[in-house]
Amino acid sequence: MKHELPVLPYAQDALAQVLSERTLDFHYGKHERAYIDNLNKLIDGTEYADMPLEEIVRKSDGAVFNNAAQAWNHLFYFFALSPNASSEPFGELAEAISSQFGSFEAFKEKFEAAGVSLFGSGWVWLSADDSGKLLITQGKNAETPLTVEGLTPLLCFDVWEHAYYLDYQNRRAEYLHHMWDIVDWNVVSGRYEKR
Ligand code: MN
């Protein structure tokens, strides 16, 4: 099974208020494409050749894991963004955020702080456990909560420099702060309700 780069549900310049067309072109069109192309080459003729992407992420290690997890993490990131999404979570997820973090504002601050304090390349994640409890975690490099038994990933912000350097240079905190303007809470709330 050959993995493909899916078409994004928005134009490459649609998020330009936060992420420029040039960033999308490099980040999705080149970095994400390279992870998928590398993965296809690495798994050809191996036990992973016919596995769905999520299963490869859960079962592999080394170079196969790095490329599979990065391929999956990026789809999870890009497909939760939208130029005209509702600006706040709603339903069950909104209730869980308020009850656990005090407020949506307090949650955002904590999430941004986790992204800022991650040393080097990686991701900041919001996940839910089996009881619906929310967790903010950092992942180095390609690490993903998909490999953690009992966790359902809900939202991630990419904090590799390639995610923000063209638009924000070294200002990672500013990038993270602006990302809220393009999070599609329909997608994220749906992930929480389906867990
Ligand atoms: Mn990236």
From TrEMBL:
Signal sequence, start to end: none
Location of the Manganese/iron superoxide dismutase C-terminal domain: 91-189
Keyword Oxidoreductase: yes
Pfam families: Sod_Fe_C, Sod_Fe_N
Enzyme Commission number(s) of this protein: 1.15.1.1
Catalytic activity from the UniProt record: 2 superoxide + 2 H(+) = H2O2 + O2
Function: Destroys radicals which are normally produced within the cells and which are toxic to biological systems.
Family: Belongs to the iron/manganese superoxide dismutase family.
Protein name: Superoxide dismutase
